[in-house]
Amino acid sequence: MATIIDVGSSTASTGSQTISIPILAPGANLILAEFGLSTVTGGSVLLNASIGFQTTLGVPNVVFTLYRDGQPIYNVGSSGLALLAIQPIAMSFLDRSVPAGYHAYSLGVANNSLNILLNTASVTGPVTYSGVSIG
Predict the structure, then answer these.
(1) How far is 131 from 133, CA to CA, in rounded Å?
(2) Cis bond leading into 126, ω under 30°?
(3) How far apart are CA 52 and CA 58, in angstroms?
(4) pLDDT confidence of 16, banded at 50, 70, 90?
């Protein structure tokens, strides 16, 4: 039977259109939320994130990435919709066989478009990120 070891969360915004953060180029990955969790040997961490983003110009390709201790462990890409349309993104990932200890988990976003000057987007909310350490 699995046991809950630790729970962590970070919420930058709970509602749609409550923030406006430009999504930058891949080299300037923007961290939206972060928290820490304790883990045990052979444990796993269930991660969940909800993000809303809005196309501000063109058709941007946006990549949302989950990190453990600064290293990417999972990502989801999305293309923008019509101009000013808000698109919700929901992510879930099970990080298996995490080394025992305390780990920093973060959620980042980058604009992966070929021409970021003509394809722009912003995070508009919500931005929620949470994790449950299971042993």
Answers:
(1) 7
(2) yes
(3) 17
(4) confident
SS3 135: coil
Rounded to an integer, what distance in angstroms lies between the CA atom of residue 14 and that of residue 104? 22
- This prediction has a pTM of 0.92
Enter the tokens of residue 73.
């462990």
Q: Is domain 13-120 given the CATH code 3.60.10.10 in the classification?
A: no
3-state secondary structure 2-59: CCEEEEEEEEEECCCCCCCEECCCHHHCEEEEEEEEEECCCEEEEEEEEEEEEEEECC
Q: Residue 120, SS3?
A: strand
